[in-house]
Design goal:
Length: 207
């Protein structure tokens, strides 16, 4: 599988570009900014993008949606609970002194348990609310990898002090959806370095 991380935007978001080696079908996950850089990586791998996916609706993860959707013409997916955030990128960005473009509307919705296929590859959506109401993780079981957005970080968890956040709900999401996965599954968060489920179960200070 093609699996490349591109750090984008002023808040250093991990954007993930995944692709099927055989068919060159691919997905872009969390295009938070620097759309041209994302587009170049997709073209370097010769991928045809089938979906653009947002793990959640915070402006730093969706700021490049409009340009990336325009470049690839692929459907945009996000959990329905975070849809109201799509047209607030510019307003929220200004609060942080950052310019941003509102996202186009979603073409479909992430639902807990749904399978997303691209070529011979597939991943399962895990709804993990707490950081945002619609936060989701994307589990690639055959690869032993999970993209955790801002739900789980290396030795940390997502912040819950923003509108729609819930500390108790986030801890429950992680326990019930992520910590039941095999210990050797590698977790790729929305910011910072990767970790493993086993490491976080044993050493994450929030647990």
């Amino acid at each position: 599988m093609v699996f490349e991380t591109v750090v984008v935007g002023p808040l250093s978001v991990n954007c993930f570009i995944l692709g099927c080696e055989g068919t060159r079908a691919g997905v872009v996950i969390d295009p938070g900014g620097d759309a041209e850089q994302i587009i170049q990586v997709v073209r370097r791998h010769g991928l045809t993008i089938h979906y653009i996916i947002n793990t959640h609706g915070h402006f730093d993860h969706i700021g490049g949606n409009r340009q990336v959707v325009a470049a690839f013409g692929a459907p945009l997916l996000i959990h329905q609970a975070d849809v109201p955030m799509l047209d607030r990128v510019a307003d929220v960005g200004r609060m942080y002194g950052i310019q941003g473009e509102n996202s186009p509307a979603a073409d479909g919705f992430l639902v807990d348990g749904m399978e997303i296929e691209f070529g011979a590859c597939h991943m399962k959506v895990l709804h993990t609310p707490g950081h945002t109401p619609g936060g989701c993780c994307l589990y690639l079981a055959e690869e032993g990898r999970i993209i955790t957005g801002d739900t789980l970080f290396a030795d940390s968890i997502g912040r819950t002090d923003l509108p729609g956040g819930s500390h108790d709900q986030l801890l429950e999401s992680i326990r019930s959806k992520l910590f039941v996965l095999p210990d050797d599954v590698i977790a790729y968060p929305g910011h910072g370095i990767e970790t493993s489920i086993g490491h976080e179960k044993r050493h994450n200070p929030y647990f």
